[in-house]
Amino acid sequence: MLAELGYLSLLLATGLALLQGLLPWLGLRLASRPLLGCAKPLALSNAILLGAALLLLASCFGLDDFTLVYVAQHANSALPTGFKLAAVWGGHEGSMLFFVFALGLWGALVALCSKRVDPLIRTRVLAIMGLIVGLFGLYTLIFSSPFDRQFPGPLEGRDLNPMLQDIGLIIHPPLLYLGYVGFAVNFAFAMAALHSGRLDGAVAHWSRPWALGSWVFLTAGIVLGSWWAYYELGWGGWWFWDPVENASLLPWLLGTALLHALVVCEKRGAYGHAVLLLSIFTFALSLLGTFVVRSGVLTSVHAFAVDPNRGLTLLLLLGLLLISALTLFALRADIRAPYARFGFWSKEGLLGAAILLLSVTCACVLLGTFYPMVFQSLHLGSLSVGAPYFNAVFVPLALCLMGLMTQIPRLRWQRLARVSPLGTLLPPLLGLLGGGLLSLGYREQGSMGWSGILANMASLWLIASLLLNFSFKTRDLSACRLGSLLAHLGVAVCALGIAQVSHHSQEGGTVLSAERPYRLGAYEFRYEGSEPLLGPNYTAERITLSVYKEGKEVARLAPERRHYSVRTMNMNEPGIAWGLFGDLYVVLGEKMGPEAYAMRLHHKPLVRWIWLGGLLMMAGGALRLLGRKPLLASRPARIPQSLRQQEAP
């Protein structure tokens, strides 16, 4: 009964979404206030019905209703309750339902939080959001319904993939989906601007908070996913240039470019066409990531499904939305933003260069990710594009971006601000000196390449520039300025961690036993013993290791090898000693004899700084968002004086 109610909720939500996407357009043509006013209640109803469908599916998991095909494939009565609820989005069908729910949720937020937006723009935005929800609702109903029954149902379910039985599954996919789907709002604003013939600073002002909120969620999802891969998959890395990892990085890069283009459009009225194109392609890349995860066209440990037919349908949906948007852009792109004069050495000019670099970086990652698939589909053979290509292309572009970022304290509209000689010379000197000393500090772990040395110098130069500027202007500091400071500091801290872990990590393999300790750099690993464990739905063997440095014990590690009987899968849980300046990381291998085990041992310097930088970026974005005026304010927005002449009559 619960499953049938869930299916009915999804069906009603899809029908109402299609009405939401059609009736307001009819109201615009007929100048009918009732039809124009129906968009908001329909958007709220959609969100409620989609939330009900998701909760009803979660109830089926909690009740172990194995007559549902989806529940039987992704749950088991012995599965812990938290993982049962997370299994709702642990497979293709449930994740698509959550995807549609996230679309409906963002649409409802737009309906509730857009009182300051021009009513005609808001109506168009809600209508476009309704069409998107309706299309993906139809796809879920026809091709990916999680409410399909089977009779008789099995006595036990197949269980959730052991790789997904982690707290990361509870948090990571929702954050990532909310980031992906949030850019649909900016896509809708771009389409509304094109249809209305109006693109000015006010529209950019209304659109910018949604881009910022989506960017924060997407950053959180990527950071958490990277951390999850690091401590769960057991390869000792944190980013593998996997196709699904790249699929989340692509909209993040363009979303970052979109944020900066919106700033210039809002404040100076420039880069309007860039805002439109970035809004279109950022959302398109979000949908492309959804296609990659579910199509099976690219091999990945993160993929949900390997069904090319359903993937092809998603690709057709993506093509329909992209072609429609670009056609509208081609027909209506004669929208002219106000003319703004500025030189390259100004805030507008350097932000434009950063937007271009981010777009080129995104294009290079996109090419490396999908070129093997295109090459194979043309029957030209098979090839693989791995980390060497991405590092060779991505690192120089990232260093150029960081070079631009070092000029942030000098950015002013139309020109660069004058900075004192101390403020001009001290940051690069600190960067050069600190980068050189940091590289020398790890000399016993191998020499650092030119890219690592430049990354150290650029990171420390950027940190010094930001902190010096902060110390000089503490009186003028607002939540928005503090958010910008933290976000850019996060980039520098993250780059510093990446440089150290990429160039100075140490790794070794050995057969470890009580009689045979192993030395890795300054650390000595000693075998202490093993013990069996009985988990809720697995059995395991845990090994205890002690780590000594200069004769003193500094850490204890406990790697495990687990066996999941239902799926008949073995999983390794690495043992990790977390540290601010480096991690000790051990992966357990096969048993090689009585009290002897094969192991891979790693030392990862400053690896935690990668996620610390990500947290700073998230905090900075959240502060920028909270520093803006409340979205729920009932009075109209106060548009800057420079933009008032741009308002449509």
TrEMBL record:
This is Heme lyase NrfEFG subunit NrfE. GO terms for molecular function: heme binding; heme transmembrane transporter activity; lyase activity. GO terms for cellular component: plasma membrane. It comes from the Bacteria. The keyword Nucleus does not apply. GO terms for biological process: cytochrome complex assembly. PANTHER family: CYTOCHROME C ASSEMBLY PROTEIN-RELATED, CYTOCHROME C-TYPE BIOGENESIS PROTEIN CCMF. Residues 89-295 form the Cytochrome c assembly protein domain. It is found in: Cell inner membrane. Pfam families: CcmF_C, Cytochrom_C_asm. The chain crosses the membrane at residues 6-26, 47-72, 92-113, 125-147, 167-189, 210-229, 249-265, 272-292, 312-331, 351-374, 386-404, 425-442, 448-470, 482-502, 609-626. Belongs to the CcmF/CycK/Ccl1/NrfE/CcsA family. It is a multi-pass membrane protein.
